[in-house]
Target: Ribonuclease P protein component
Amino acid sequence: MLAKRYLLNKKEVAVFKQRGKNVFRTPFFNVAVLKVSDEDIVKFSFVISKKVSGRAVERNKVKRLLAEIIRNKLDKFKRGFYIVFYIKDKMCSANYEEINNLVDKSISEISLA
Model:
């Protein structure tokens, strides 16, 4: 799991809602990014609706899987960004390799690496 310092808090989420931009779409998730000059680390948030899965167990499993992939790639991200992953329903049936490849692709496409 990601350390708490890498997760957005409520104030940062409020800032993100005002100024964040959707920049990358995949079949499993959308990625929105906000450049923040006063942060020296990259911070993440994972959003998954009850429409994706009615069971909290499944929603939490998907968030944990994505957080673990991100944790293994923290050194690849540029500092000073807020990044939010909006998770879609297809991700509940995806495996680790598919998600890992899409995260790599999204990092390079958004030029966060």
Observations:
- The mean pLDDT is 89.
- The helical segments are 10-19, 56-72, 96-110.
